[in-house]
Amino acid sequence: MTLLAPNNPRLWYFHGGNVGQFAVRQIVPVVGAPLPTVTHLEVSQSCPDSDASAGFVLKGVVSHERYSTRQEKSGLVAVQQTLGRDLCTGGAFIPIKKSPQWWALSQDERRAIFEDRSAHIHLGMRALPAVARRLHHCRDLEEDAPFDFLTWFDFSPEQQQVFDDLLGALRATEEWRYVIREVEVRVART
Amino acid sequence: MTLLAPNNPRLWYFHGGNVGQFAVRQIVPVVGAPLPTVTHLEVSQSCPDSDASAGFVLKGVVSHERYSTRQEKSGLVAVQQTLGRDLCTGGAFIPIKKSPQWWALSQDERRAIFEDRSAHIHLGMRALPAVARRLHHCRDLEEDAPFDFLTWFDFSPEQQQVFDDLLGALRATEEWRYVIREVEVRVART
After folding, report:
1. Is the N or the C terminus of chain B less surrounded, counting Cβ atoms within 10 Å?
2. ipTM
3. Choosing among B45, B46, B64, which should be mutated to test the A contact, i.e. which has the most A CBs within 10 A?
4. pLDDT tens digits, residue range A44-61?
């Protein structure tokens, strides 16, 4: 697979196909339309060329935090780990789209749902340092995107329950009532 | 000029060249690198093709509000006007880039600077309904963009002082210390 040089250092591609650093274990359409069935996932900062195997290519941009306060941000930074630790051979790629109603809310209304009532940051903190994470934004890309966010996680197989508990807790929140499409792609590093 | 159909209904193009709905009166490089000198500005939801006259093409996406509260948003919506009113033949296109220091701040720190200490929304309200405005985001585009925001304004020539006062007030704020590039393109509808 030929890779083209990236123009934006904050841009990441998630390419589902028949090659890649990660073997796909399971693709679960949690809400809304599924993704195509593929055997591998390639995570890269270079754009897959058009000869790359069929499946899906999703892309997103790492951006500034939208909700966290200084105290919350400092708390996260002190504990969070980088992706790619040797033991962290388990992973998950979770694209999400929220409803037009979510995006029509004001900043204080979204913050109140996100943290005051759904404890999104607090729940995420409970999974640290076991689970590493990188969030990518798609909503303000030039092309109209099928998802608003792509989140990429890794963890050691022994810590999978911590990750499963995090997903379960988030999906039970008020915030998740605004999620209109979610797919869970479980992978293992090959 | 051939125009290609847009994929994203929130995406707008600002094409500086030798044709367009607006005659360029002046281009002022307020901070940082200037833009090429052009005679006209075309504002469109369709991508200018590669044959379009040289100059600049900047693009941005209309997105959700990042800072305003419900009360502020409702106050703005009640007074603000749509672009393109018959009498509003004066206009301005102002692309802006903020510093890495701005983007490294947490949400509460940016909100405190933006409104609590710089009164951005309050100053903008004072210019309503004379000045109509649309904000476009560029920072999370796929391609690394030369600006973070593009703002497009129109007003009647009789109300130009209201707009000039708004620009002057904003540029004197703490928020504007984080602006590392700003160009002011003044236009008139042809």
Report:
1. C
2. 0.93
3. B64
4. 999 887 766 779 999 999
